[in-house]
Amino acid sequence: MSVVLAERFAHNPDWSKVQPHNCDRAQELVTLIQAQIHQDRKALADDYYGWLYELNKLLNSL
Q: Which of 9, 26, 32, 40 could be stapled to 18 by a disulfide with Cβ–Cβ 3.0 to 4.6 Å?
């Protein structure tokens, strides 16, 4: 899954794509991403992309 798809997931999560043992962290990441998703891409912090990367890894662990 690409970072763009992880960002789409964060905007409209389908929790069936997350393994149960990863669900708590995935929910935390989605909350963090959603809090910043409205910002201009140039203004987004490195943390934002790190969260997307981590969410991407969780989604790919299926």
A: 26
- Characterize 31-46 residue by residue with b for buried, 16 or more Cβ atoms within 10 angstroms of its Cβ, and e for exposed: ebbeeeeeeeeeeeee
> How many alpha carbons fall within 13 Å on the CB side of residue 60?
11
- Which amino acid makes up residue 33? I
For the stretch 28-37, contacts whose Cβ atoms lie closer than 8 Å and that sit 24 or more positions apart, written own/partner, are 29/54, 29/55, 29/58, 30/55, 33/7, 34/10, 37/7, 37/10, 37/11
Task: Report the alpha-carbon distance of residue 7 to residue 24 in Å, rounded.
Answer: 17
> Model pTM greater than 0.90?
no
